[in-house]
Design brief:
Elements: E1 2-7, E2 13-18, E3 23-33, E4 36-45, H1 50-94, H2 100-109, E5 117-125, H3 128-134, H4 140-161, E6 165-171, E7 174-181, H5 183-187, H6 190-205, E8 213-216
Antiparallel strand pairs: 1-2, 2-3, 3-4, 5-7, 5-8, 6-7
Helix pairs in contact: 4-6
Length: 217
């Protein structure tokens, strides 16, 4: 087996793995951000001419470039939306706004319905810094997996209880969520039971991770 590498652009390279007389495996690593990569690959016969191989590599580079531009555009949109969410929560919690009408319009663009009694709560990992130090040797990828597992479990539990989740965004080592309750639910303090059950179930489901969770309203 022989591995070759050809450059077609500064940041995109076509790599080849030659399996002998039969097949050549060509692939491109599309680097988007640190630790965020996409891959594009083809398998071609080894008996084709050099000009055909070059044509295939050029086509692979062009497709990879188009994919990269599209993915970067999608990432930019996501990052912009996240920034708007962060700004909205920061302004709302610190009361850094001049008009409720403006806040309602901003909320509407983010999918938050002020017709409900929206409760903002912060889901924290209390001992994440200690947990990070104890498991530092496992690498950053391990902690990203833990955070994704926590996020998936939070969403799973929320979906079991309510459909009206206005916003859900990561912040620091935890998450901020806005959940809507109607007036009767709010007056009966149903939201307290709701969050208590959420916290209990998530703690139970992730107890093997030795993490401590808390919810702040």
């Amino acid at each position: 087996m022989k591995i070759n590498q050809n450059e077609c652009y500064d940041d995109i390279k076509v790599k080849e793995i030659n399996f002998g007389e039969d097949k050549i495996f060509k692939y491109v690593i599309i680097e988007l951000r640190e630790n965020i990569n996409n891959y594009l690959a083809i398998i071609e016969p080894n008996m084709i001419s050099e000009s055909e191989k070059l044509l295939d590599s050029t086509a692979l580079c062009n497709v990879a470039t188009a994919i990269k531009l599209q993915k970067l555009k999608e990432l930019a949109i996501i990052e912009t939306k996240e920034k708007l969410k962060y700004d909205f929560f920061d302004d709302l919690i610190s009361e850094a706004y001049t008009s409720l009408d403006i806040m309602e319009k901003r909320a509407a663009t983010l999918g938050l319905n002020f017709m409900f009694w929206n409760i903002i709560f912060i889901f924290d990992i209390d001992n994440f810094e200690q947990y990070y130090k104890s498991n530092f040797h496992k690498g950053e990828h391990y902690f990203q997996e833990i955070k994704m597992k926590i996020k998936d479990n939070i969403i799973e539990q929320l979906e079991k209880y309510r459909d009206n989740i206005g916003l859900f965004i990561p912040k620091g080592d935890g998450y901020i969520m806005s959940v809507g309750f109607n007036e009767n639910e709010y007056k009966r303090f149903n939201y307290r039971t709701f969050f208590k059950n959420i916290n209990s179930k998530i703690n139970h489901k992730l107890e093997n991770e030795n993490l401590d969770f808390s919810i702040t309203l």
